[in-house]
Amino acid sequence: MTKLPYERPQILKMNAGLMNKYGTRTEYEPVKHIDGIPVKTLIAKYGSPVFVISERTMRSTYRSIQRSFATRYPKVQMAWSYKTNYINAVCNVYHQEGSWGEVVSGFEYRKALGNGVPGNKIIFNGPEKTTAELELAINNDSLIHIDHFDEMYQLIDISDRMNKKPRVAIRVNMDTGIYPIWDRFGFNYENGTAWSALTKIVESGKLNLVGLHCHIGTYMMVTTAYSIAASKLCDLAWNCKTQLNTTIQYLDMGGGLPTANDLRGAYLPAKDTIPSVDEFAEAIASTILNYGFKTEDLPLLILETGRAMIDDAGFLLGSVLANKRLSDGRRATIMDFGVNILFTSFWYEHKISPAQDFTQHTEECVLYGPLCMNIDVVRSAITLPLLNRGDQVVVHRVGAYNMTQWMQFIQMRPNVVMIDESGESHLIRATETMEYIEIPERMPEHLKTVKL
Ligand SMILES: *Cc1c(COP(=O)(O)O)cnc(C)c1O
Prior knowledge:
With 452 residues, the chain is of the alpha/beta class. Helix content is 29%, strand content 22%.
């Protein structure tokens, strides 16, 4: 028997985390404070995990977006998209800044009213509006954005019965060069349905057609889509004026502006690829301004920016529960927050910073949440300094959609805290309790006793 050759085994560092050909960042900065308050203090006071919202960032982002549009177009109005984050304190920061309310359900509508938004400054979008909700909106002189023909006829009926002429717009969907087309909401432009709806609305004599609305997508990465959308809405407005003798008072361009969050699997970081708000504003404003309206006939420009308004102002603070090795040797770190409260980790690779000093070592790891559920992956591959049990982290840009799409699954939802402009923290939504979770539950008589 011949002797087998011996090869010394080697341990190689796997480097699967490279984001692009230029390499990936290896240096990290701990993030120890949010608006001047130590992360440790926030966690000690409000528990872990905890959402923290910076009022200062909210207001500065609002002013910056508003300025981008208002410096380019004479009449601009923001409308806060409630579904993006409808915690009342959050909404009221934007309302204080001058934002109207944009809602997509009766529940959100009542929230806006409750926050003190006058009915005539609420935009009522969405495919579901009950008769009672439409009656309420009509009585409040809200702007009702019609989504489909069934709703149009329903509204005509209700208006006839109430003997009132509500202010309405239609939502228009269209080909903006982004595919697949978002065509499930509103009336299509290219096939003539939108025009047909406008004609029917005017001819009914029962509705006061005042606006046109579109919301072409979300996290849009090209400005031309907005130029195309704006020019198609201008076409419709022009035809309303010339053929239906109806002046369109506003064009509502919806939301959809991206944030600096990296999309899962994106080749380059978002910061390098997304256009600035100025560029989007330029695309929209120049299209409308160059269209040919007389200056005095220029429609009001409404924006329902959600994601880009709040994402940067939201942080999630959390703690490390444990570290372990997976069967293939990968390092896995288990956090006390998961997809139950960080829904956006399904499509974003959230930036995560350690909240304390650390050693030089980094290693690619999987970040799991605490749920006993395989899908609970916060980051499937992230290079981080080695975190130990009890260490804390800050997850960045979580302000949009997490505090509305979160689910009460396995764990309860945590505290939400706002840091005001003077650096003081306020609890704005308390962590859920067992009693709260069980309020809607009912126990049939025969199931009340259990004997084991
Ligand atoms: C969700 C939504 C928005 C906000 O969209 P973002 O992409 O978050 O800016 C605006 N308008 C309507 C009708 C929406 O449904």
